[in-house]
Specification:
The protein is an alpha/beta fold and 251 residues long. It has helices at 42-49, 89-93, 95-99, 104-112, 133-147, 163-180, 191-197, 231-245; strands spanning 2-13, 16-27, 31-35, 57-62, 65-66, 75-77, 151-155, 183-188, 200-205, 210-216. Strands 6-7-8-3-9-10 form a six-stranded mixed β-sheet, with helices on both faces. A hairpin with a 2-residue loop joins strand 1 (2-13) and strand 2 (16-27).
Length: 251
């Protein structure tokens, strides 16, 4: 059974449809990528799933409950880490708990339980300016997790990282996902990243944006280090490129 279900969502802006009749499902512990061109409606869809925007048609369900237009049910991490420079790492991470009204000492205690698992042990009293790019993303991801521990929406969270840092944080994130049974819906423009991380890749294409194809990545995780050099990987990439080039609106 799907933990998250998007059912027939449509949204317009200034009289023009941005997305139309979009449906998708996310199962527990799964990572599903949304892949498509800029302006295809991926961020619009995320805003609806997060409850920040109301669709004209369709519904969003979490564990079978209608959460359409109800913010605070699903965590949402944007491309930038958005850590507050004047707060320590532990207070940045604990922010979702503080917003819920939990006392600072208790919020810090609850957040501290995850610092080792997220590779942040020893950074509690540091400030964001003292962290590397990869460590900032880890802190932002932990804050996202504490906001909602079931489903995470990640909008290109690793795009600003250099290649080696991105590769390391990919491996780390998949390990963390597995250990805490986090389900992730992931927006990227990077085909390689989508194939390396995903259980399924959904193509959101056309104007208005629609799910035009779903590709299941059947290679089990954890994937071997040389997976990106394999013929199987290249075949997935050829298929996705072909489907993107021949999707409605791109022909």
């Amino acid at each position: 059974m799907a933990i998250l279900k998007v059912d027939g969502v449509t949204k317009s802006f200034q009289g023009s449809k941005i997305i139309e009749h979009v449906s998708l499902e996310l199962r527990e512990g799964e990572l599903v990528s949304l892949l498509g061109v800029s302006g295809g409606g991926k961020t619009t869809l995320f805003n609806i799933i997060a409850g920040l925007s109301q669709p004209e048609e369709g519904k969003v369900f979490l564990d079978g409950l209608d959460i359409t237009g109800k913010p605070g049910q699903i965590s949402y991490m944007l491309q930038k880490d958005l850590l507050l420079p004047y707060r320590t790492v532990e207070d940045n991470v604990a922010l979702p708990l503080l917003i819920r009204g939990i006392k600072k000492s208790e919020a810090r205690r609850q957040a501290s339980q995850y610092f080792e698992k997220f590779g942040l042990e020893g950074t509690q009293k540091k400030y964001p300016s003292q962290l590397s790019g990869g460590m900032k993303q880890r802190a932002a991801l932990l804050r996202t997790y504490l906001f909602s521990a079931r489903v995470a929406l990640l909008d290109e969270p690793f795009s600003a990282l250099d290649m080696l840092t991105k590769s390391a944080i990919h491996d780390w994130y998949l390990q963390v996902m597995e250990s805490i049974r986090l389900s992730t819906l992931f927006v990227t423009h990077d085909i390689d990243e989508a194939i390396l991380l995903s259980d399924r890749v959904c193509l959101l294409t056309g104007r208005p944006g629609q799910i035009t194809k779903e590709i299941q990545i059947r290679t089990p995780r954890p994937r071997k280090k040389d997976f990106a050099l394999s013929e199987q990987f290249l075949e997935y990439k050829r298929q996705i490129l072909h489907d993107l080039e021949n999707s409605p609106g791109n022909r």
